[in-house]
From TrEMBL:
Keywords: Oxidoreductase. Belongs to the short-chain dehydrogenases/reductases (SDR) family. Pfam families: adh_short. This is 4-hydroxyphenyl-beta-hydroxyacyl-CoA dehydrogenase. Transmembrane segments: none annotated. Residues 6-194 form the Ketoreductase domain. The keyword Oxidoreductase applies. GO terms for molecular function: oxidoreductase activity. InterPro entries: KR_dom, NAD(P)-bd_dom_sf, Peroxisomal_Beta-Oxidation, Sc_DH/Rdtase_CS, SDR_fam. It comes from Saccharopolyspora terrae. Gene3D superfamilies: NAD(P)-binding Rossmann-like Domain. SUPFAM superfamilies: NAD(P)-binding Rossmann-fold domains. Signal peptide: none annotated.
Length: 303
């Protein structure tokens, strides 16, 4: 899995999952552009990578605008000569139930997660096409975007939108040799601390205590480092034929999310009136109605 000639931009990589991705890429020889909104955090991340023998620089800017996307790609090219990998990890939370969520709460999350992914991928793809050697796009999604999550209208919408864009881009960029995939990690971070029944496990991990098997396997949650291997894999030639996928990773679990598809179908000559649907629903569709939200083992929820 040779990556020592590669150059990557990892957004939101000053800490947490983004830093874990950046450090794993750097460990494998990738030159990395670190991105964060805080100068001290970004500088610390760069220092950790450099002190470990890696190559890294920092761009301090909020993700969302086309200007930031341009700065990130330009920094990679100016410092390291090219760009091969983009990991769009930057994100924020503004969790509230629907009736309390403000326009500002909604717009802030959509701007960083969804618009930021769009602007950064667009600029990276332009550079990849100029280089003519393909490239790797790795977008960070979430189980919340696949199944929804209480209090996360904005976040769930953004993460669902990211996977939708990934599937579209995989088709559009195939001929250029550019792969596009989504990684949906579950890790003990500041973000998962906001989920009440997971918070105690995050605190346990901070104290150096190992996460129990039910968390690492059944919930699929681990450390940020547990989620980093799949990013390095997708950046490598070993994943050259993998595109358009949503990959779940966390703890001891690696899995593929299915693409939405029709599960139950009925036909009615001349179309469906409301009365027809009411008659058919119980017999044909009731048993196939999908659940919402993540489903966790009872022993986890009971803690």
């Amino acid at each position: 899995m040779e990556l020592s000639t590669k150059v990557a931009v990892v957004t939101g990589s000053g800490q947490g999952l983004g830093l874990a991705y950046a450090k794993e890429l750097a460990r494998r020889g990738v030159a990395v552009v670190i991105n964060d909104v805080d100068q001290a955090t970004a500088d610390t991340a760069v220092a950790e990578i450099v002190e470990s023998g890696g190559r890294a620089i920092a761009v301090v800017a909020p993700v969302g605008s086309a200007e930031t996307a341009e700065r990130l790609v330009a920094a990679a090219v100016e410092e390291f000569g090219r760009l091969d990998v983009l990991v769009t990890n930057a994100g924020i939370l503004r969790d509230k139930v629907l009736w309390k969520m403000t326009d500002e709460d909604f717009d802030a999350v959509i701007d960083v997660h969804l618009r930021g992914t769009f602007t950064c991928v667009r600029r990276a793809v332009q550079r990849f096409r100029e280089q003519g050697e393909g490239g790797r796009i790795i977008c960070v999604g979430s189980p919340a975007g696949q199944r929804g999550n209480f209090g996360q209208t904005n976040y769930s919408a953004a993460k669902a939108g990211i996977v939708g864009m990934v599937r579209t881009w995989a088709m559009e960029l195939k001929r250029a040799g550019i792969t596009v995939n989504a990684v949906c990690p579950v890790a003990a971070t500041a973000m998962t601390e906001t989920i009440p029944f997971l918070a105690p496990h995050v605190e346990s991990m901070k104290r150096g205590e190992p996460l129990p098997a039910v968390i690492r396997r059944d919930v699929g949650m681990g450390t940020p480092e547990d989620a980093a291997g799949v990013v390095a894999f997708l950046a490598s030639e070993a994943a050259a034929e993998i595109t358009g996928q949503a990959i779940s990773v966390g703890g001891d679990r690696l899995a593929l999310w299915s693409h939405p598809q029709l599960t139950t179908t009925a036909f009615h000559d001349g179309g469906w009136s409301a009365d027809d649907i009411a008659t058919e629903w119980a017999a044909t569709f009731d048993h196939a109605v999908e659940s919402v939200g993540e489903e966790f083992p009872e022993e986890v929820r009971a803690r």
